[in-house]
Write a structure and sequence with these properties.
The chain has about 210 residues and is of the alpha+beta class. Helices cover about 15% and strands about 30% of the residues. The protein contains four helices and ten strands, in the order ααβββββββαβαββ. The strands form two sheets. Strands 1-2-8-4-5 form a five-stranded antiparallel sheet. β6 and β7 (about 125-130) form a beta hairpin. The longest helix has 14 residues, at about 5-15. The model is unreliable at about 1-15, about 15-30 and about 190-205 (pLDDT under 50).
């Protein structure tokens, strides 16, 4: 017998996998407190070979462009996520930042992006970059750049919940059982500088030269 909890989990999984009428898991399950990545999937990093890291930040006339490299690492071999491909990435974004994506490139070429529907009670939706079709070999040299401007021109304001850290979920092929989450700390906002490095440790003075004997 299927319980209401089991039914909700099944609906969330199916919605994450294929979508129904363009709606996402939370819209179908009715859960206003859905937690990113809003799917029933494995978020464990140790199970997946894929990571994503911020590698370059460029100031533009409208904001910033952020480039990310995919990384391939060792993973827990006795699980299916270790042998998965990489199909899409998602990150949660405040609703007021909807128009802040000015462009996306994938491996240097213009690339499309979409949004999930709104997650009620949180004032957010998720940015989706889909159809990546990467495996271990191709992911090791792949990169994505996101140009930001308008209301949320930097990662500090663009990533929900605007704490300066971005959550990025990397999904495999449908039904998306694997969704490892990388935590990316955005660069410091303009006007702030990194604290100075501590002074180098004091070194012992050099020994005097040996005496000359005649």
């Amino acid at each position: 017998m299927t319980t209401p909890a089991m039914a909700m989990a099944l609906v969330a999984l199916l919605a994450c996998a294929v979508g129904v009428a363009g709606q996402d898991a939370v819209a179908l399950s009715g859960d206003p407190n859905s937690r990113f990545p809003d799917c029933v999937c494995s978020e464990s990093l140790v199970r997946s070979p894929y990571r994503i890291a911020l590698t370059n930040t460029t100031r533009t006339t409208q904001g910033f462009t952020y480039c990310f490299d995919f990384e391939v690492v060792a993973c827990l071999i006795d699980n299916p996520c270790c042998y998965s491909t990489l199909t899409k990435l998602e990150l949660p974004v405040p609703l007021q930042c909807h128009n802040s994506v000015l462009g996306v490139t994938f491996n240097g070429a213009p690339f499309g992006w979409t949004w999930t529907s709104v997650f009620p009670g949180q004032n957010r939706h998720n940015l989706k970059i889909n159809q990546l079709h990467l495996d271990r070999a191709s992911a090791a040299s792949a990169s994505i750049c996101i140009a930001l401007g308008d209301t949320c021109p930097d990662l500090t304001t663009f990533c929900f919940p605007q704490t300066g850290t971005c959550q990025v979920a990397l999904f495999d092929e449908a039904p998306f059982p694997c969704c490892p989450i990388s935590m990316i700390a955005g660069p410091l906002p303009p006007g702030r500088v990194h604290p100075p490095s501590p002074p180098p440790p004091r070194m012992s003075p050099p020994l005097p030269p040996p005496s000359k004997f005649y």
